[in-house]
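Methods — Computational structure assignment.
A single polypeptide chain was analysed. Its primary sequence is given first, followed by the predicted tertiary structure written as structure tokens.
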Amino acid sequence: MAEKVTSNHVRWLTDEEKALWRDYLAIQGRLHLEIQRDLKATSSLTEPEFEVLAVLSEADGPLRMTALSDVLQWERSRLSHQVTRMVKRGLVQRTSCPTDGRGAFVSVTEEGMREIEKAAPDHVATVRREFLDRLSEQDKGELARLLALVEGSAGAGPAGTGSAGIVSADDGCAGDEANRNYPAAGVPSGA
């Protein structure tokens, strides 16, 4: 947790920094709005459901809830509530770890796969139209470098390209750390 900074010690933003921050927030807001609109128009999924299904559809098997939470950068309570709603809709399945009653795994169901496969093409089209196609290949490389700096993983390659193994539910529930940092590309493979 960050230390509380007193107003006497604040490094206030310059006009250029304020403009940059506001531009970032505006772009982020616009992208989320466009993604939400397109998902609503073309599928029954919400943006959070799509995010969860995208990660699970690319996993080699069930993921621990803690690993999924870490990949999505969500608080565990938020993920737990989201997964509960998705279980009720038949999109995912939650299973307990037989050797550790506190551990839980989540996996995509056949219905969830159908929904993500239906939504992915339009989602990818939106991401391309509203973001990627506005950038040259050089711009994309530079943006990936800058995002890695902000994320704190500079030198680890483009953002989101780490590597970690996936621990399946039949691994005796060991290896939480092995799938804790599972990289997600954001859309199902081949979508």
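Note: Residues 20-140+164-180 form a domain with the Arc Repressor Mutant, subunit A fold (CATH 1.10.10.10).
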